[in-house]
Design a protein that fits this description.
Layout: E1 12-20, E2 28-35, E3 38-43, E4 57-60, E5 65-68, E6 70-75, H1 77-83, E7 88-90, H2 97-109, E8 117-122, H3 135-139, E9 147-151, E10 156-159, H4 161-167, E11 179-183, E12 189-195, H5 199-202, H6 210-226, E13 229-234, H7 243-255, E14 261-267, H8 268-275, E15 291-299, H9 329-341, E16 345-350, H10 353-369, E17 378-381, H11 387-396, E18 399-402, H12 405-418, H13 420-423, H14 429-434, E19 440-441, H15 452-461, H16 478-492, E20 510-513, E21 530-535, E22 538-542
Parallel strand pairs: 1-4, 1-5, 6-13, 7-8, 8-9, 13-14, 14-15, 15-16, 16-17, 17-18, 18-19
Antiparallel strand pairs: 1-2, 2-3, 5-20, 9-10, 10-12, 11-12, 20-21, 21-22
Length: 545
């Protein structure tokens, strides 16, 4: 198979600015030379002559800053692509339930009665009413169209009566395992569905073709490249498109038409399907440096806002911690051991300390049954890890991927829900690094906007949007934060030997920034524009084009 134009390498020489390599032995370079997609030389001008010829493109940094391309360790590019499409209405900017209803009403008025009206990214804390919309609100939009409205966190959805009818959700429908159907004082569904209670409705939403999904992923790639991300991990393959998403990613693996490096974590049920030979299976072909499966995804609690398994409940929780666990412990142990013994990496969503403890228990048991060196089983989000749990991660070889952007977007809300002392422990990156843990951090888009430099800035300042500082003792340095979104995230996916630093032999993936994150005020890091993104020596995004 020949490489597509999207993934063709270019030979280039990058100079004329500050180059930070993230290599402890040689942290700076005057010039980078990329040949055949890999860094052939990183050093001073005196040594680069033998590595260039008349065909080498010269890229002048014009005084700007070059770093290794950002690696996003936990995101949902398939979902990002779908939400940029024509079917979904973005409600992020709306300040009241009436405004949401008005936007949905326009869509309904221009749709046939059988067509779903779909909205996303409302945030009840930003609405005048300070509550979730309900079935009764959506009934005022339309009683003929099924309506589905996703909360920004995607762990809650609101639907109208027609949607409930189509999914056969009634007062007699029990809460599913790992989910909840909110009910009024008569026992009737209010239209608010949490966690796995969403699935019966989600299964009824309009189905995309594989061609549609491929087009959406190409649109998403433009967003990632525009913010300097050169590699991304899809953290829940099939979340919206099921087996078709697996077919789409396998197609890109074969054709080489995706301009962004993409790895995938496959949820356990889909992994079982693919393992049995469904769809494209688990051997996708192509160049694994561009597209590959990397882990099996599990959940052991829900969102920090609703269903996190915490030893001390947050404001609004009505159950004790282990009642929010997705799996009973024995079943979770079995599933983890099955994945572990298949020599796959396990990647588990766990926000609360009770969930983190459950995950560590399962990983420990699996490792006691079958020893595996360098397994790098992961805990995703890891928001309320205790010091004892961090020590245990070190002992077990477990790696965390933190979510500090939560502090920027919802720190003020967390101060109310958890109190200052507990909120200070959110994403305890300083404690993790002091213990020598390999750490990464992520945005989890479209849960939060794809803004890697917001991650860096908030990891350094621990500031919310209002300026509140949550846990200054957990702040890390600019260098540590930049390493987390380069080498750290690469390590989480077993890729530190090919990406994450600008050293000879690694992939020629580079981001160019308009200002120096080491030199600007920490609160300004989030505002630094990305000027250029380079993959394999080829410019794939340029701000001024």
């Amino acid at each position: 198979m020949s490489m597509s134009d999207s993934q063709k390498h270019k030979d280039c020489l990058i100079s004329g600015g500050t180059i930070y390599t993230m290599d402890l032995q040689k942290p700076h370079a005057e010039v980078l030379v990329v040949r055949d997609g890999r860094i052939a030389y990183a050093g001073d001008f005196g040594g680069c002559r033998m590595h260039k010829d008349q065909h080498t493109e010269k890229i002048d940094l014009k005084g700007r800053i070059a770093l290794p391309g950002f690696v996003e360790s936990h995101s949902h590019p398939f979902h990002v692509g779908q939400w940029t499409g024509r079917w979904w209405l973005n409600c992020e900017d709306l300040g009241s339930i009436n405004e949401i209803m008005a936007r949905l009403r326009v869509k309904a008025a221009n749709s046939s009665p059988d067509q779903w009206v779909l909205g996303y990214r409302y945030d009840e804390s930003k609405l005048n009413e300070k509550r979730h919309p309900t079935r009764d609100d959506l009934e005022q939009v339309s009683q003929k169209h099924p309506i589905f409205l996703y909360h920004f966190g995607q762990h809650i959805a609101v639907v109208n009566c027609e949607a409930l009818r189509r999914a056969d959700i009634t007062s007699s429908t029990p809460d599913p395992a790992g989910g909840k159907i909110d009910r009024d004082n008569k026992g009737e569904p209010t239209g608010i569905l949490r966690e796995s209670a969403i699935y019966p409705i989600r299964d009824l939403l309009p189905k995309y073709s594989v061609d549609d999904i491929c087009s959406q992923l190409l649109e998403a790639a433009k967003i990632y490249l525009s913010v300097g991300i050169t590699s991304v991990l899809e953290a829940y393959l099939g979340k919206m498109g099921g087996l078709k998403e697996a077919s789409a990613i396998a197609r890109f693996a074969e054709t080489g038409e995706l301009p962004l490096r993409l790895a995938a974590a496959i949820p356990y049920p889909l992994w079982k399907e693919l393992q049995s030979g469904a769809g494209p299976g688990l051997n996708w072909g192509g160049d694994p440096e561009w597209v590959r499966p990397v882990a099996v995804k599990l959940f052991q609690d829900g969102s920090l806002f609703t269903e996190a398994a915490l030893s001390m409940p947050s404001k609004g929780q009505d159950k004790i911690g282990d009642q929010y666990l997705t799996y009973p412990q024995k079943e979770f142990d079995r599933v983890v051991s099955e994945i572990h013994s298949s020599e796959w990496q396990v990647m588990t969503h766990a926000n609360g300390d009770v969930a983190i403890q459950s995950v560590l228990d399962a990983y420990d048991r699996a490792l006691n049954i079958e020893k595996r060196a360098d397994h790098r089983h992961r805990i995703e989000h890891c928001q309320f890890a205790t010091d004892e749990q961090l020590d245990r991660m070190v002992a077990l070889g477990v790696v965390p991927s933190f979510f500090p952007a939560h502090i920027w977007h919802w720190g003020d809300r967390h101060l109310v829900n958890f109190g200052p002392e507990r909120a200070a422990r959110l994403s305890p990156m300083a404690s993790a690094l002091k213990r020598g843990l390999h750490v990464g951090m992520h945005n989890d888009s479209p849960f939060t906007p794809m803004e890697p430099l917001v991650q860096v800035g908030v990891a350094v300042t621990r500031r919310s949007k209002s300026g509140e500082v949550l846990g200054p003792e957990q702040a890390i340095s600019v260098d540590q934060a930049l390493r987390a979104i380069t080498l750290g995230n690469a390590y989480l996916a077993f890729e530190e030997v090919i990406k994450g630093s600008l050293v000879e032999g690694k992939l020629g993936d580079v981001v160019v920034l308009e200002a120096d994150p080491y030199k600007v005020a920490p609160e300004k890091i989030k505002d630094i524009p990305v000027a250029m993104t380079i993959i394999g020596g080829k410019i794939v995004y340029e701000k001024y084009l």
